[in-house]
């Protein structure tokens, strides 16, 4: 017999796992099919959660990110009740720094953006944000260079993508979620030639076919394949302009007690995220046109290490614990692709989060799961049409 589910989620990174968890939690019989591609973005991201201090000047993204990060508290509390393993989320302050005079202008521009967010979104809250001098900044992050300006925001957080994804899956399993390590080769579509019941020729999904040839029937299919999502566009008759952006990141062993060290965010697109086990993750490159090549390069690692030494010369004696590579699913406008596929009943997308999948993905999964269930997403401030695939 062919297996049948109410929903199949294709792709098990943090976004797909969130969709599957939220569907299962609401009683939807769900299969999560994941082939665990090498280089998927969830496995390599640093997981900085701080939209209040972002230097992005993109109103739809910021509005969505504020809601997405705000949802973490509710979701983490649910995961602590529904599964007994670690979730990888922790509150941790963020230290934004201008290391030299060239970055001071960007620092001041970001301060203006932060002031605007306080007026529109009520963040940062009074007292949670303050400017530090160089000595105060180094007291919080001892390896830091002498900096020109430093801003500390205490209400930020960080998340380990691999650990959080696993927690979502375990919690989903407690609600009946089924998982398969498998590759979906094609979608099963019906209609389109006037052969549906009403003769109108409407199209819809009827399941998926695995690369083994096995067919899985389903009323709904959610495509959450990250950088690989575009491969289903031709079948669905829609362009899914998601391309891989390679990001290289290193994990350093530090001979120091890193417990409580803040996230460090300079103004060249890099970062350093400290963990409580003597580890600092540093990165990341943003390599457009990299293709599906999940490997480190001499040039990429040099870029990361040069920035580490520029911003935190006190890490010069750190040793390399590991290097990771993620292929981020990037869209032309930097916004995710969420919601129903036009003219294909039962087909949905949850992809295109770029370098901010760990920040946005869990909430995106909830939003898309609500849409699959025919519900209007709760407290969704941004217009969902901004994230629809037909905007392209």
TrEMBL record:
Pfam families: DAO (PF01266). Its cofactor is FAD. It comes from the Archaea. Residues 7-370 form the FAD dependent oxidoreductase domain. The keyword Cell membrane does not apply. Keywords: Flavoprotein, Oxidoreductase. Belongs to the DadA oxidoreductase family. PANTHER family: D-AMINO ACID DEHYDROGENASE, SARCOSINE DEHYDROGENASE-RELATED. This is FAD-binding oxidoreductase. The lineage of its organism: Archaea, Methanobacteriati, Methanobacteriota, Stenosarchaea group, Halobacteria.
